[in-house]
Amino acid sequence: MSAKRQPRASRFARWTLVALAWVAISACGGSSTEEPTPPPAALPAGQLHERAAERGMVFRFRSDPTTRKLMYETMGGGVVLFDADGDHDLDVFVPGGGSAAGSSRQAAHQGFFRNTGQGIFENATATAGLEPQDGDAFTLAGAAEDVDGDGDLDLYVTALGANRLYLNDGTGHFTRQPRAGGAEGDAWSAAAAFLDADGDGDADLYVINYVEYDPEDELPCTLGGQRIYCTPILFTAAANAFYRNDGGRFVEVTEAVGLGGSAGKSLAVAAADFDADGDLDLYVANDSTPNTLWVNDGSGRFVEEALMRGVALGRDGREEASMGIAFADLDRDGDLDTVVPNFSSEVYNLYRQDAGGFFTDVATASGLAATTAPLLGFGVVAADFDLDGWIDLAFANGHINDLADDLLVATTFRQPNLLLRNVGGAFEAWPERTGDFARTNVARGLAAGDLDGDGDVDLVVSRIDGPLALFSNGGAPTSRWVAVAPRRASGAPATGAWARLELADGDERVAHLASAGSYGSQNEPVLRFGLAEGEQPEALVIRWLSGAEQRLEAPAPGQVLEISEPVN
Amino acid sequence: MVSKRAWALTAVAWLALASAGGASDLAAAIAEAKRLVSAGMSQAALDRLTPLAVGPATARVTAELAAIRFQNRDFAGAADAYQRLAELAPDNAVVKRNLLIALYRCERFEAAEQVVNELGEATVGSDARALAVRGLLAAQRGDHQKALEDLEAAEALDTEDTFAIYELGLYHLAQGAPDQATAALREAVRRNPESSSAHYNLGQALVRAGDAAAGRAAFARATEISNRANAEQTRRSRGVALAVRAQERLAAGDAAAALRDLDSALEVFPDDPQLGQLRTQALAAQAPTP
After folding, report:
1. Which residue of B has its CA nearest to A346?
2. Percentage of chain A with pLDDT > 70?
3. What residues have CB less than 8 Å from B164, skipping those under 6 apart?
4. Cα-based distances in Å from B129 to B16, B144, B197, B279
5. ipTM score here?
6. Test the B interface: residue of A70, A234, A316 with most B CBs within 10 Å
7. Which among A126, A197, A421, A488 is least surrounded, fewest beta carbons within 10 Å?
8. A407 and B203: CB-CB below 8 Å?
9. The pTM is what?
10. Are A471 and A461 within 8 A, CB to CB?
11. Which pLDDT belongs to residue A260?
12. Which residues 53-72 on chain B approach chain A with CB closer than 8 angstroms?
C-alpha cells in the first residue's frame, strides 16, 4: 500500500481533523463504496457456504501419505490472508505441504490466490513468483509482514526444513531471498509470528519449531497391531528461534532476548499485547508440553510466565496437546482472553483474563468444554460472525489418527468444524449459522477475513482430506458495523494496535491487532465491531504500541477505516 | 484427580459382586477388555464388551463400559452407561452418584440436578462427593451461597477424601478468593501429595495471593510429578516402538539392526519373553550359515 495515501499528523487534534476528512474518502470494502456480494439464492441466508471452487480457489494440501504413516503427513498447514498487491482486498497464501515419498525434502507445494475483487480469485502462484523451487522443504505455515520497511507485505514461509522469505515489490510480485534473509533455520517450523519486539519500528520474527525430526529415523507407532500416526511423545522438543530485524536482514538473537530454553513442542504462536502494557508478548501453544507465555519487558527482552499467569496447563493442571491460539475480548470486560484448541477428550481451553493479568480456564463455565470434548482442534479464530457485538468462535477440527473411529473412544478421524455463538460471554452451538462449515473433514489451518468485501467475516480452511475450503458468510448485508485497519506510517498493518469503540450509551468495546495465531495462519489485519440493534458508535480510539492515542469522533459504520499512525 | 477413577472402579467392583454375572467366559472377556484398555485400545475394549451386555450379565458389563468411558474422559458416554445402570438398579445410590459426576463432567447440568433430586437430601447430605457435585451445580447456576455451603459441608463430611477439598479450592480460585483457595488446596496437597493438579492449582492460588516464591515452589513440585509420569510413559512407548521396528527389520532381513533395537527395547522391558524370543531369532539370523 502506498504510504503517500495515508494521513499523517504529529499532534492529536490535527490528526483527528485530517483523519475525519481522510476517512470520508478512503473507506474501503464497505457498503458505501461497493455493492455487497449477495448470498447465493439456493442456500439458506445467514449460513456459512462453502464456495472455494466457485470463487476460483482450487487447491489441495498434499502430503502423499506413506504406509509408514510419518508424523508430518497428518499435521497439515495454515492459511495466510493478506493484501499482497495493495488493492485493499485480501489475497490468500496457502502452505500446501508437498510430495514427500518418504522424505520431507522433495517437491514443496504452496499456492497463492489473488483476489480480483469481491472475493473472486485467480491462482497467481507462478506469476507472483511464489512457486517453490526444486529441493524446497515441505510447506507448513506462513506469515506476512513488511520486513524491509517499504510499505508492502512480504511473505515468510515455514517448512519442515529450510524456511523461505519472499520480498514483495509492491505489486504482489515476490522475489525469494537467499537463506530467508538470515532466518532460514532447518527444523520442523510449525509457524512464525512477526512482531516489533523492541519498539524500533521494524518487524522482528519468532519462529516456533515442533520436534527434532528426521523421517528416516521415525520409529513406528502402533495400536492394536496397526500402524498409526505417532503423537509427539517419542520426540524431543525442538528449540524455537527469535530473529531481530536489522535493516531488513534477520539476525538470530534467541538467547540474548531471553527466549532461550523453550522446551515446548510448539505448534502455534501469537504475538499480542495481552497485558496491554504497550509491547508485544508471545504466547505459544505446545503439543503435550506446557504452553508458554513470554512476557515482553518493554525493551524486547522476554520472561516466561505461563505457569504464573495460568495459561500453561488445563484447569486440572495437566499439560495438553495444544495446537492453536486466538486472542479476543470474549467477555467484553476490556482485556484479552485466549482460546486454545486441544486433543480429543482434553476439551478446549478458554482462559479468561482476570485482574492483574492472571487467567482462569473457564471452559466449563462458558459452555466450551462439553461442546469440544470429542474434538481435536487445530485452527481457531475469534470473530463476530453475526455482527451482534459479541465475539464468536470458529474451530477447524480433525483427528491426527486415521484409525480413530476404530481405536479411540468417543472421537472420530473426520470431525465437524465448530462455530460457537457468544451469548453474553458464554458459548453455544449455532446450527442455524454453521451451514457447510459443520461438514466433517480433517481440518488444520483456519483464517478469518472479509474476502468478498461485504462487511462480514468469511473463513478459509486448509484440510488434509480434501480441497481448500472457503466458507462465505451468508449474513444479510448490513452496515451495522465499524471497522478499522490500523496502519503503521509505512502503510503496513500496525500489529499491536488497540481500538476502543465508545458507544452512545456509555458502553465500550476493545479489539486488538494480534499477529499470527490460529494454526500456522494469519487473519485479516482489521479490527471489526458489530453493532447490536440500537447501538450507536460515538467515538473510535486507536492506541498505538507507542502508547499514543488517537480519537475519531462519530466513526462511519459500514466501512473499513484505514488509519495510519502519525509520525512524530 | 486420581480418586475419581478409583471411585468409578469401586462401583465396578461393587456391581461385580451384586450382579448375576460371573461365568468364566464373561470374566475372561472382562480381563481381555482390561488388557486392551491398559494397552491403549479402549475402543477395542468397548467393542469386545458391548455385545455381552445382555441378559443377566447386563449390569456387570455396563458397569465395565461406564468405567472404561470415564477413564477415557468420555463423560457423556459414561453418563449414558450409568443411566442404563441406574435403570437396572434404580435404588443403587453408588450408581446414581457415579451418574451424577459423569453428568456434571459432560455439562448436562439439568440432568445432573434431576439426579440430585432423585437421590434426595438424606442421601446427598451423607455422601461427600454427591454433596460436592451439588455445590458445583449451584455454582454453575450462580447460587454461590449454596455452592459454598455444600462444598464446605462435603469437605467436612469426609476429611480425608480429596475430591471435595480440591473442588472447594478451585471454586475459591475461580471466585477470586486466593487466600481461601490456598488453604483448601494446601489441604488437598496434604491428602494427596502426588497430585500434580493439586500442586499446580495451589501454585495458582499462592501467586494470586501475592506469594510468588511459594507459588513457584508449588509449580516446581507439580512439574516434577508430571515429568516423572511423562518420562515413564515416553520410555515405555519408545520401548514398544523399538520392538515393533525390530520385528520389521528382522522380517526385512536386517538382523543386525533388529538386534540393536531389541537390545534397547529389552532395557525397557527386560523380562518380556516375546522380546527374548525375537532376540534369539535375530541372533540366529545373524549367525553365519555352516
Report:
1. B73
2. 91
3. B128, B129, B131, B132, B151, B154, B155, B157, B158
4. 22, 18, 18, 51
5. 0.84
6. A316
7. A126
8. no
9. 0.90
10. yes
11. 95
12. 68-69, 72
